[in-house]
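Researcher: I'd like a structural prediction for the single chain below. Treat it as a standalone chain; there are no partners to consider.
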Amino acid sequence: MNGLRSARHPKSRKKITAGGIIISVILVLWSLIQVFPLYWMLTFSLKENAEIFGKNVIGLPIKWLWSNYTTALQSGNMFKYLLNSGIVTAATIAITVVAATAATYALTRMVWRGRKTVNSLFMLGITIPINAVILPVFLILSKMHITNYWALIIPYSAFALSMAVLISSSFMQGIPKELEEAACLDGCNIYSIFWHVILPLMRPALATLSIFIFLQSWNELMYAVIFISDSRYRTITVGIQNLSGSFTTDWGPIGAALVVATFPVLIIYAFFSSKIQESLVAGAIKG
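Model: Treating it as a single chain, here is the predicted structure.
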């Protein structure tokens, strides 16, 4: 009977200890600390100046001013800047991902003279800070008369390429070569193997690359300020800087612009976070 009772009522309950309670409290407090800036920015964007500066700093808005978003998107031209950032970021991700995966395939799967030297050159690019070469890049683009979106897409893609090759290499080296040999026996050439065998297996790595490139391109300010003089091509970071100028007194639309610029990053990361974790774990195990 005792055996039957123990089988029916297994000891699956974990004991609540003081250490576990302390860890849980610390984790809850840490989560609140991380979420609070997002909460404050969201409520900040719906308040008037009187609430922002002392009357109601951290509470919910007394008067919900949704018009701040209308002001930011229309009067502040944030919608146009948001569209420009989307164009620049999407083009940078597409160019960098295709170039990085193709270069990685050539460096890790093909045998040719000088590939180690080329790989070293790619890794050397990681050591060059993007802001350290503003002047030479600006002179090159000026002589080529590039002042539109490509003035940002070209340098963003170039500086993201080295890190993209590094991440892709650690993942691609773990893909079994037998898959390529089987595809080759089925009549596939190099390009077919790359597009139909390698790339589908690298989806977690591609998601990781897309997130890293997205964060770099979306949040970059220095190049966007210096290289873009025409307001038609300004990005969201430059638009927020212009909106929060020296003579601005209405801070609600500035908060709305910050929400518009920040929350797309959080939404995209939420969709791709699982793929990023899979890529990092796979790269650590296979590498």
